[in-house]
Design goal:
Layout (H helix, E strand, L loop, with lengths): L6 H6 L7 H6 L4 E5 L2 E4 L4 E4 L2 H4 L8 H13 L11 H13 L4 E7 L2 H18 L7 E5 L8 H6 L15 E4 L23 H9 L4 E6 L15 H12 L2 E5 L13 H5 L5 E4 L11 E6 H8 L20 H16 L2 H17 L7 E7 L2 E6 L8 H13 L1 E2 L1 E3 L2 E4 L7 H17 L3
Bound molecules: 3-[O-phosphonopyridoxyl]--amino-benzoic acid and pyridoxal-5'-phosphate (PLP).
Length: about 450
């Protein structure tokens, strides 16, 4: 075995979203990271082609972020999240609103994207109830959508495998996904499919809009394999939601804080939701954190009550909401994002990334390639009856070559660090091309 770990240690850890049996037969252990590279247990340097899990766009072990966390833990390690506050929670909330589209200016903290999704869905239902329309409870998601793994999130989520074995969830409808054959190999936003948003009109007719609370979509669907929105699609969803008094939630757990070459997916695609969920990049992955950012009118609806002011307006929250270490990491991450003009850099690198990834179009087994900002996805032709196998084999070959990428379903995903060089992006894509070619059978 390539590591110092004992079999009993390997056995004890039930790993998340991992093929545990395969992993424990052939472990891939990461022991350190710096900049755009991991070090594995054999001492090899491995390029981080997905920025952790879309978390570490600024690279690993960013000095200013590490220092902020270290200083925070020496000052205030934990502060009770309920009924008491610490300064950095308020500072970070205000800083986040500065990154948000206008009117999204109230921040509810949690610890992950999954919690952010469930929090947003609960806020949507609570809002309509407080607004005197308690029958508006139904939720709408989209096929291929990923909103984390909690019950609300998997209910509106659209990845069948993530739902299959867990039984009843929350009642939800799903829009069709936007992956059309006409759009294969589109560069950036595809031309076809804006009309797919009109399915929302049919769902609203079926249930009547008076029973529907919210629609949740990722502006760019990430986990399912990187699907940028067709031109005009998000605007149509926005218009239908506005016309029918249905809240629009953007799940920006991957999009927000730079990946799209803009502050948010909302900014990149020019459509403003009523609520946004964030996580991952907000702390550059260094400490877990998520949040829901809402329009002031949604927040104010909860505050507008005749109850005495010592009564809770919303019974919801997490022990670790606005954890001091996460807030310190968040403030430092936003500082670096601004100080180093990172978003402009992403915008500049996006064109090179687009050219690079589309150069793989003629490699064996490539069915489709998609990209936006520094996010890219390839769909690979399956082995007969084994849709999951080829991406796994390709990713393992890349790991052996010194490149980490994400594989899931029949896709391979690339999300290089914002700070990666042109050469590093070329090397990553070239290595992927070689792995696809050597996988040709
Ligand atoms: N919403 C979206 C849009 C996400 O991308 C979550 C919610 C859940 O976040 P947490 O922090 O609970 O995991 C996510 C997470 C991938 C990949 O390979 C993507 C995610 C997680 C792991 C892998 O694309 N996204
Ligand atoms: N379960 C039990 C028994 C608890 O006491 C708590 C929190 O106090 C939770 C679950 C929720 O944990 P968290 O707030 O970290 O989500």
């Amino acid at each position: 075995m390539a590591t110092e770990l004992t079999q009993s240690q390997l056995d004890a850890y039930w790993m998340p979203f991992t093929a545990n049996r395969q992993f424990k037969r052939d472990p891939r252990i990461i022991t350190a990271a710096d900049g755009c590279y991991f070090t594995d247990a054999e001492g090899r340097k491995v390029f981080d082609g997905l920025s952790g899990l879309w978390t570490c766009g600024l690279g690993h072990k960013v000095e200013a972020i590490s220092r902020a966390i270290a200083e925070q833990v020496k000052t205030l390690d934990y502060s009770p999240a309920f009924q008491y506050g610490h300064p950095k929670a308020f500072e970070l909330a205000e800083r986040i609103t500065e990154f948000m589209p206008e009117h999204l200016n109230r921040v509810f903290f949690c610890d992950s994207g999954s919690e952010a999704a469930d929090t947003a869905l609960k806020i949507a239902r609570g809002y309509w109830r407080k607004a005197g329309r308690p029958e508006k409870t139904r939720l709408v998601g989209r096929a291929k959508g990923y909103h984390g793994v909690n019950f609300g999130g998997i209910s509106v989520g659209g990845i069948g495998a993530n739902r299959a074995i867990f039984g009843e969830g929350v009642a939800a409808d799903h829009l069709r996904h936007t992956w059309l054959t006409d759009n294969y190999f589109s560069r950036g936003q595809p031309d076809h499919g804006a009309e797919l948003a009109d399915e929302l009109v049919e769902i609203l007719m079926l249930h009547d809009a008076s029973n529907v609370a919210a629609v949740i979509v990722e502006p760019l669907a990430g986990s399912a394999g990187v699907f940028p929105p067709p031109k005009g699609y998000l605007q149509r969803l926005r218009d239908i939601c506005t016309a029918n008094d249905v809240l629009l939630i953007f799940d920006e757990v991957i999009c927000a804080f730079g990946r799209m070459g803009a502050r948010t997916g909302s900014e990149a695609f020019g459509v403003v939701p009523d609520m946004m969920t964030i996580a991952k990049q907000v702390t550059n992955g260094a400490v877990p954190m998520g949040a829901v950012i809402v329009k002031q009118s949604i927040h104010d609806c909860f505050m507008d009550t005749d109850a005495p002011d010592y009564v809770l307006e919303m019974p919801h929250g997490y022990t670790y909401s606005a954890h001091p270490l996460a807030c310190a990491a968040g403030l430092a991450s936003l500082d670096v994002l601004e100080r180093d003009a990172v978003i402009e850099r992403v915008r500049e690198m996006s064109a090179a990334f687009e050219d690079a990834i589309h150069s793989l179009a003629n490699c064996p087994h490539v069915l489709d390639i998609r990209n936006y900002g520094l996010a890219g996805g390839l769909t690979l032709e399956s082995y007969p009856g084994e849709p999951l196998r080829r991406p796994f084999e390709v990713a393992m070959d890349l790991w052996n070559k010194g490149f980490y990428v994400r594989y899931g379903g029949d896709t391979v995903q690339l999300g290089p660090p914002f700070v990666a060089s042109r050469d590093e992006i070329s090397s990553l894509v070239d290595a992927l091309g070689e792995s696809l070619t050597s996988n040709a059978r």
